[in-house]
Design a protein that fits this description.
The complex is a heterodimer. By secondary structure, chain A is an all-alpha fold. Chain A has 8 helices and 2 strands, in the order H-H-H-H-H-H-H-E-E-H. Chain A has helices at 2-13, 32-38, 42-66, 72-97, 107-111, 115-122, 129-159, 183-228; strands spanning 161-162, 165-166. Chain A has a two-stranded antiparallel ribbon. In chain A, helix 1 (2-13) runs antiparallel to helix 8 (183-228). Chain A is flat. Chain B is 73% helix and 0% strand. By secondary structure, chain B is an all-alpha fold. The termini of chain B are far apart. Chain B is globular. Chain B has 8 helices and no strands. In chain B, helix 6 (114-125) packs antiparallel against helix 7 and helix 7 (130-159) crosses helix 8 (170-188). The longest helix of chain B has 30 residues, at 130-159. The chains are: A mainly alpha, B mainly alpha. Chains A and B meet through helix 2, helix 4, helix 6 and helix 8 of A and helix 2, helix 4, helix 5, helix 6 and helix 8 of B.
Amino acid sequence: MDLQTARRYNKRLSFTEGIIKNNVVFTLGLGLPLVIAASTELKKGVLISILMLLSNLSGGLLHLAMGKRIPKIIRVPVIALASMAVISVAVPRLSYFSTQISELGVYIQLVAINGILFDAILSQKEGSIASSAVRILSYSTGFVLVMCSLSVVRELMAERTIWDQPLPAKFLSGISVSSAQTVFFGFIVVGLLCACFRMADRTIKYLMVLRPRYSTRLKPKLKARGASK
Amino acid sequence: MIRFMYMIILAIIVENMVFARALETSTLMQKINSYDRIIAFGSIAAIITTLSGMMSWGALYFLRPLSPSLLIRNSAVMLCIVIVYGLALLLLRYTSFLKTPPSEELLVSAAFSVSTVAAVFLALSMKMSLLLTAGYCFGAISGMTAAMLLVHGGRQRMTISNVPRAFEGMPITLIYIGITSMAIYGLVGYQIPA
């Protein structure tokens, strides 16, 4: 019963590959520079997420079109160039949406060569081109979720605003961490969240596998032992 | 000459790619796991970045009268990196001047690493002379390599330390980099509010 439940848990989670199971940031460590340095405000988080989706979609489609006919060493520069072109076209249009895009500086260009896209292209365990395209999509979704949620937390902590809108005066009053937007804070928070993610996964597995085992097999034995004493 | 040296020191310490800009953390967590590999990765990245920086400076210098759009500028810089990468690949395949040549996979990782692209774009955004651009590119990658060596040394020590299970590997390394980054911030002048 216990192992079956655990297997079912793993099977269910396999649909969330990159989002919950093997989270792209907290477990696989992809896209860390963007998450750590650029997730200081929600607007910036959303802008980076949009650029990331555009870059990964175009890169993924190109990867799908080129197939395995072209060796990896040529595929990477071609996709990097195409991705950079897509981002360069998108940036002026996004600047109408928010002027904060100029504050992202060099991180805009770095989206074009992000780890999520290149991991799918360079990965050794690459099954088929379609599967790597699916992986790019699920990993991008996982990245967007982490990026936006961390941006909300950091903006809330540093400026007590969300999407530049101030919070009511009484809400979380007295809690303000001005260093929440620094790089070192990003490193420490992401490190702590990685540990929490692992601990949560381990605890769920423990509750599924070990606890039923303990209750069905060991508990009666222990009870019997106690009674005999 | 003093400005050149200043630019290198600025890129190595104050604007360190790992501690001040959080770049190359993914590579550090995944692929690079020995001192030899870090040095090989850093050396290749330094050569490619310096050459790409110089070539991009030249390309933008000639494009300046045409006031190019962001698309043209970014594509030109990326194209320069691709050309330098292509030349390095040809050199690696058809010559044998190195006793133990690096793998092509390492060459791809170094040429299209975030620090290579970031160093070139940052150097060009400062609008400096050709020599200073080359100095900044070289300094940035040297600083990145030094930081990677430092972090790898820390990781090795942490593997033999008694770290809580949930923190083993990536989490403790990120916290370690974060604390070291705090020291760099102190050097730059950031004050943690009392």
